Amino acid sequence: MASIVGKRQGGRTYYYLVESARVGGKPRIVSQRYLGSAEEVAARLSQAGPGEPTRTRHLAFGDVAATWALLGRLGLARVVDRVVGARRADAAVSVGTYIALAVCNRVVAPCSKLAFADWWATTCLERRLGLPRSALDHRRWWDAMEAVSTAQLAEVERAVVAAMVAEFGIDLGGLVLDMTNFATYIDSANPAAPIAQRGHAKQKRTDLRLVGLGLVVATDGGVPICSHAYGGDRPDVTQFADLVDALADRFRAVGGHDGDITLVYDAGQDSAANQAHVQASPFHFVGSLPPSDFPRLLGVPAAQYAPVDEAVWPGLTCYQTRTVALGADRRVIVTHSPTLHAKQVRGFAQTLAAVGRRLDELAARLARGRTRRPARRWKPRSPASSSPAGRPGLSAGRLPASSPAACGLPGRSTRPPARRWKPSSSASGSCSPTGRTGQPPRSWPPTAPSPRSRPTSAS
Question: What is the pTM of this model?
Answer without folding.
Answer: 0.58
